[in-house]
Amino acid sequence: MYDNYIFDLYGTLADIRTDEEKPYVWEKMGELYGSMGAAYTPSQLHAAFRRLEEASTVQMQRDAAVFGQRDVLAEPDLTRVFQRLYQEKGVACDRQSARMTAIFFRALTRQLLRVYDGVKETLAELRARGKSLYLLSNAQSDFTRPELELLGLADCFDGILISSEEGCKKPCQAFYRRLLERYDLNPADCLMVGNDMESDIAGAANVGMDSLYLHTATSSQGGGRYRPTYQVTDGDWGKAADILLGEDGGLAACTNFGKEWAEK
Fold first, then answer.
1. What does the pLDDT look like over 61-79, one tens digit per residue?
2. Is 76 strand, coil or helix?
3. CA 172 centroid distance within chain
4. Which CB contacts under 8 angstroms, 24+ apart, belong to 182-189?
5. What percent of the chain lies above the pLDDT cut of 90?
6. Of 147, 163, 206, 179, which is closest to residue 13 (Cα–Cα)?
7. CA 34, CA 21: separation in Å to the nearest integer?
8. 8 A C-beta contact, residue 243 and residue 254
9. How far apart are alpha carbons 178 and 147 in whole angstroms?
10. Do residues 85 and 53 lie in contact, with contact meaning Cβ atoms separated by under 8 Å?
11. How many CB atoms lie within 10 A of CB 121?
């Protein structure tokens, strides 16, 4: 079947719920900034954060267009935004201090984080069979790398690409191509596994990869421009494991697109 398996993280391997709009979050962030000499009210801090986040995205898109990369979807590094929030108040802030601020913010906003049942066992079995595993995640590095450690997934992959580190995100081809080029992968030998029809399924199709769509609680509703090669519509990781580890019969049993889509 496939030599390389590429996974989305949130909503695919792990369930996460966050709330960045809670007043409590911005009250505590305001206290943190104030304690460092950067005085904001909670509402001022919230507004400044969103302003700088948007400005960073717009500037990155403009820079990409200048270099002829009009299809790039820019992904700013929010740790730099946290750093600039200090600097706008005249407070010096190095990268490590900004990183700790980002981690504190994520801890405040995170309401749930857990690995789906069966994920670790499936990844371990794929590796035992000599398959290569990669993570391709639309995420913030200083949120996600600590969470990979918390989830016990940090050592499960042969390569990890996080959008904030690369400056672009799924479904743009640039993000997928970086993975393929960095690890010398043939798209025909790869299967993309994700829970988003646009970012994961359409993105994979655009670079010639097959895909497995896993519909989970955080998946968006509705279909996309492309149909996945395989799909599990009820979020059952046991069925996903059957597809990833099974023979053709197992694949056929776990898709609802009919024989022509199931039997690869």
1. 888 776 666 667 889 999 9
2. coil
3. 13
4. 183/4, 183/132, 183/134, 183/158, 183/159, 185/4, 185/132, 185/134, 189/2, 189/3, 189/4
5. 83
6. 147
7. 19
8. yes
9. 23
10. no
11. 12
Give the contacts of 85 (CB within 8 A, at least 6 positions apart). Answer: 33, 38, 40, 45, 48, 49, 52
Residues in the chain: 264
pLDDT band with cut points at 50, 70 and 90 for residue 256? very low
**Which of 75, 58, 66 is CA-nearest to residue 172?**
75
Q: Which residue has the tokens 């191509």?
A: 177
With b for 16 or more beta-carbon neighbours within 10 A and e for fewer, the 7-21 pattern comes to: bbbbbbbbbbebeee
- The pTM of this model reads 0.90
Average pLDDT on 167-196 reads 96
Cα–Cα distance for residue pair 84/52, rounded to 1 Å: 8
- Reported as a single tens digit per residue, the pLDDT across 113-171 is 999 999 999 999 999 999 999 999 999 999 999 999 999 999 999 999 999 999 999 99
Which pair of structure tokens corresponds to residue 28? 């505590």
Q: Where are the beta strands (DSSP E) in 29-142?
A: 110-115, 132-137
Q: What sign for the dihedral angle of Cα 38, 44, 46, 49?
A: negative
What whole-number distance in Å separates Cα of residue 169 and Cα of residue 9?
A: 13
- Residue 31 C-alpha from the chain's centroid: 29
Report residue 47 as tokens.
């507004």
> What's the number of CA atoms in the CB half-sphere (13 Å) around residue 102?
25
Distance CA 168, CA 72 (A): 6
Instruction: Give the span between the Cα atoms of 24 and 19, in whole angstroms.
Output: 10
Task: State residue 136 phi and psi, 5-degree precision.
Answer: -130, 100
Average pLDDT over residues 176-205: 97
Task: Determine the average pLDDT of the residues in 5-30.
Answer: 97
* DSSP at 56: H
Let me know: does 5 contact 131? Beta carbons within 8 Å: yes
